[in-house]
Amino acid sequence: MIAAPDIQLVRREVTTVASRSPRCMVVYPLGKKSRQRIGVADKNGIMSVFSLRKAMERVAVFETPPQNRPVSCATIYEDQLFFVHGSTLEAYSRKGRRFFSFDTNVTDVIHTLFVSTPFIICCGNFMATGFREASELGFYMAPDRINAMAVFAVSSVANLEERNFDDYRCILGCNDRTVRMLRSHKSIDDIRCEAPVTSLGVSDGTRRVYYGTSAGSLGCLDIGNGDSFLSRVFSFAPDDHQAAVTALAVYDINMDEREELLVGRQDGSVQIFYVYAEEGADSGHPVCMWSGNTDESVLSMAAGFITDSRRPGVLVHSFSGRITTFTLKEEEHAAPKEMEAVDVVLECTDAQINEARAEIEGLKRSIEARTRELAAYSGVKKGDTPLLAVSSTFKTKVTLSQQKDSPALRLIVEVDTPLDCVVLQSELHLHFLEESAEVIVQEEIPRNNPLTKTIAILHPLETRNYSCSVAFWVEDGQWGLLKVTALAAPAPRTAQVKMVQLRPLPLYARVGRVDKAVTEGNASPVLSTMEVRGNFSARDMHSWIFRLLPGTPEMYQEKMSTLSYEDTFFQNPLEVKYGDGSALFTTELLQVLMVTERFIRYCASERSLEVSFSVGIHSEAVRSNLSRIVPRIAACNKGLTSFRLLEALQELQGGQQTDMVCFPKEYQRILSQADETKKEHAQAMVTRGYLQKAFVSLCSSVVDIVPKKPKMSLVTKEALAALTDCSDASEMMSRLDSLLLCDERGEGLKSTVDEGGGR
């Protein structure tokens, strides 16, 4: 066990701004003043630059004029501020004078900006564009959504003032689990990651690129000699579930002359890691040395001497617009003069609080009076209570994410105002997990209701007033809409409605490397195929795949004719090759082919297009599919049985903790491994229901997709349902052989599946 260095940070609230976009907060480099300036964007297009005194009092430096569009990103070059609103880039000097402005003509939403004059790189959702001052140099179109960008200069020009655009390397973190390195708008290297990349950070000192993913994992890539390739230093996936990484920064926060990795997550967690590496080793792994929380999703992070000239701190911008600082804690023994100064500051703070409260009460009275005037003017009254139509002005963000090694999906609802509750109305049956404590009301609608199958009300936890999350799973092969209604707590009561698409194959995620996605693993994959033909175009097929599989790029690109996916639960690969009039799906799971066929038939019928299907089944496909799911079901049943037995044994022990010697060895083992048994039980509670449904779906797929296979009788279906309670995998496989009419060698299956057939 590696002991992390001791570090303590003190949390303080700085201010609140009207900005809900990431990468809209910057920290100026240290200048003549003892503290660094802060720049924060506003939804009205205003950039406010200020510094902070020790009592968190803002000292304004300058504000830019308001614009018609909100600021989407900002950055600092030396002591100059650059930011983008709409497609326009503007630059301001340290004193607040605008000295540069031009229209980039970029139609994509610019979310990341890099400046090293005279070169500028703007990054949007799908395109990275380079400029030399106001002249465009070129662009790179990514095969999937770009979530993050980082840029650095090659080591050979570190001390040179004159540089070319080729001397910079652009790192892109993409939604297809790939980090790409560009030189002059061309990809020169890429490396696959364990989940979609959501954040990037570059260490200028060690020449390393850090990345965070939607699965909560962290990774580090080394920039090789020649700055032309990337190599993996480490990939760190926490043992317990962690929220998606939304912000990264690299800084020496404890002043030990070694950089630490600052991590911000979607659930508001703020963590500081140091990279432990043995002497002489090239690789290492991160160790968490401090963690805190902002209770809201982290949008941006920065570090520096912000509130104190002697102690650095971490500055965090969260979703509600709140700016929070975590400052290195000073020594406990303070001088008497310093204590007196603190008392004076506290008295001033109390006076400011009382003054603010009085001002708020006055504003409330003014609002009430104005409301009555407007109600009387508009003639809208009900008794003595005036009614006034209002519109919601708060911002709502809804995210549906997959969970690694779990069939559950996590829905996260974030608002920038205190949240009262969230109402879910789904066209599909949502199977909520028992750990979802935020579900206070749940009701299933009868099956004959075609529009709504589940209604639930979620209430945020006491510690999280601005967000609400819930985990659930849905059956494969079903699709529909999930209506999310967020109700704000402040008066006047307003609500916003968001629609979330639930896809037929919700657990699949896009991966970058086609060859690796299909061929990775120790054993050769047992792949089956399904070919689709018809009078559809490649663009039509892409739109159907977009509705079928999560992570599919929204935009169709002609050069991209192959897409690759991976199931986050079974780790099963799926490859799709498509063009005008044809598409080929290759996978190991038979039920995936059945779901795909049914959904494409549905999509084609909407367009009145004719399609035909030809299925090629591997001779070992059925047995391979069963060997994937049967051991998992048996393990879940065994975990549930062991947990019930553990509870009974602990009750027999009583409070005196009776000696375990009196129990049989099997019971002693269960008692000694109580923590592991509880962990297995928790995992079984998450996966058992989904696995049972998947097992039935697989058996139905075998009957439907394998040629000449007879339909299952009611007795067979009942026998299959009873099998899902078995705790012995070998016994389940043996009974399945007899139920599905195959002998020990599987010849019964081979005689039917080898014949293949069109549909």
TrEMBL record:
Keywords: Coiled coil. Residues 346-373 form a coiled coil. SUPFAM superfamilies: WD40 repeat-like. Residues 29-327 form the BBS7 beta-propeller domain. InterPro entries: BBS7_hairpin, BBS7_pf_dom, Beta-prop_BBS7, WD40/YVTN_repeat-like_dom_sf, WD40_repeat_dom_sf. The lineage of its organism: Eukaryota, Discoba, Euglenozoa, Kinetoplastea, Metakinetoplastina. It comes from Trypanosoma cruzi. It comes from the Eukaryota. This is Bardet-biedl syndrome 7 protein.
